[in-house]
Amino acid sequence: MVLLITNNQFLFKNPKENNMEEQQISQKVNQEVFNLLKKIDPLFFEENRLLTFKSWVFKDNKPCSAQKLAEAGFIFYGTKQDPDTVKCFFCDKTLDGWEEMDCPWSEHESHAPYCNYAKLRTSNLRVEDYINLRKELLIKIKNKFVEDKKIESEEALEEILDEMET
Fold it and tell me: Where does the sequence pass through the membrane (predicted)?
């Protein structure tokens, strides 16, 4: 059985069994899991990333539309001075200087080859993909926290040593 995360639902794929009772159970589980994940990780969902694009510099019919940017993992991060700045919800890569014919997926991969979300090249995640990405994201957050605390500790130690010398 494969579980896919796609816009607004989880899809259980099981080619061997396709009876009505299982479909009803699957739909109920889909909705409950979807609602839970939407609360925990709203930016993992394309529709929520798209909501960050209150205004975008290119029309919806262009390759570099807000829809395509949200699909490629970006949230709007622009200002009046930089109206085309976006940021990946996963790798935190910030990009600007977009042109209307740019492909968001290609630009994402080009500028952030380390981003495992961009490497997937789909916003329809399998649950396994979601779990792996979530785990990677949590490890990244933990490592950043530890590094920040290490820097704070080193700075505090320097201050103490400076005070002891004076």
Answer: none
- 75 contacts 87 by C-beta, under 8 angstroms: yes
Give the pLDDT confidence of 109-145 residue by residue, as tens digits. Answer: 999 999 989 998 887 777 778 788 888 888 888 998 9
Cα 153 off chain centre by: 31
pTM: 0.68
Cβ-based neighbours of 34, under 8 Å, separated by 6 or more: 5, 8, 9, 10
Please give the backbone phi and psi of residue 158, each rounded to the nearest 5 degrees, phi first: -60, -45
Instruction: State residue 166's pLDDT score.
Output: 75
DSSP state of 12: E
Tell me the pLDDT tens digit for each residue of 41-88. Answer: 888 889 999 999 998 999 999 999 999 999 999 999 999 899 999 999
Pick from 53, 43, 57: nearest CA to 92: 43
Task: Give the Cβ contact number of residue 72 at 10 Å.
Answer: 25
Per-residue burial over 84-113, b = 16 or more CB atoms within 10 Å of its CB, e = otherwise: bbbbbbbbebebeebeeebebbebbbeebe
